[in-house]
Amino acid sequence: MSKPIVAIVGRPNVGKSTFFNKIAGKRISIVEDKPGVTRDRIYTDVEWLNRHFTLIDTGGIEPNSKDVIISQMRRQAEIAIETAHVIVFMVDGKEGITTADEEIASMLRKTNKPIIFVVNKVDTNNLPDTFYDFYTLGMGEPIPISSVNGLNLGDLLDEIISKFPETCEDEYEEDVIKVAVIGKPNVGKSSLINTILGEERVIVSDIAGTTRDAIDTPFEFNEDKYVFIDTAGIRRKSRIYENIERYSVIRALTAIERSDVCLLVIDATVGVTEQDKKIAGYAHEAGKASIIIINKWDLVEKNNHTFNEYKRDIRNQLSFMSYAPILFVSAKTKQRVHKILEYIKYVSNQHSLRISTGALNDVISEAILLNQPPSDKGKRLKIYYATQVSVKPPRIVLFVNDKELAHFSYIRYLENQIRQNFVFEGTPIVIECREKKRDF
Q1: Digit-coded pLDDT (tens) for 251-279
Q2: Does the annotation list 231 as a binding residue?
Q3: 169, part of any domain
Q4: Into how many domains does the chain fold?
Q5: Which molecular function GO terms apply here (predicted)?
Q6: Any binding-site annotation on 311?
């Protein structure tokens, strides 16, 4: 089940980012102990009344501008609109209707998507006289809000979730392994897919950013069914002038959300960059099975130590993804490309692995004997029992006396013990602590 996507659109400076940050700050718990996970997002996962969805912050749309960057922003916002299940159209209640608002309203009316019309910067319950002018846009009943002081945000969130489709199920059957091919521009993602498929199914170009949208390519191999989701390369923030390609990023993030397995493609001639770490962080945080693909390996000058040194550097740079297997390939020469499907199937199975409660508790009990849980001010962490509650990714709940005593380093120790016994190669493991008062 995919999460619904909600895009916030409107001309620049109407308060879209303020609204986005207000919702994200109120509803999202940032876990500081996850290295490599980016914080400068333009999307966020939101929960409201037990409904989960992804909120997208768009760049402002200037419909008639000839400025290259503005026109790119407009195109990226259009991609976001195409991707979204619900659109929040925001205008400025202090400034009143502008020509740009009218142009955007005209564009949105053609989408046939649920649209929620929001008038921002209404800071009191007394509506300004200009508020009623917004009815002339023909976008339905406007909802007055203030992103700054939180006025009517609850009502708006109620309206958003009321517009969600009854299901956001994927269009593919359950036995299909969905693979998102992710990475920076020009690392060879499309070439890699073409080599695996043995045919030119995706446009290949040496110009970074050729692949603008996510492209699905279903195929079968040895009676197994796959779908490759090729995505636009994700660029470093300073290279995209804040907004130019942010909706290619949304396509990639949406592809990650839809996928079972992520192939993180890295250019062997460049090595692991900060942007590679961020992209890996997206897949890691989404709980997806992952394989690190080092492409263009044929272009690297080698000696007897090159392979081991390169692999060691990857493990150091992507230490939070130590579970992911690494494969050195060349889409051009087809070196080791035939192994990719084998790896995909393997990590997909690991991603779906379920272990019995009895076996899990045996491992946890032994781990506790080897290394006592931490204590604070005379109070020691007690782990009563553990159980696996779900798969994709494997999610394990520890019932404990006090969550505050469950230090990150000890949870990581328990994760390592679990991996030593059950492998879980290629997949993150989510370990959650819940407090339980012992009644015996």
Answers
A1: 667 778 889 999 999 999 999 998 889 88
A2: yes
A3: no
A4: 3
A5: GTP binding; ribosome binding
A6: no
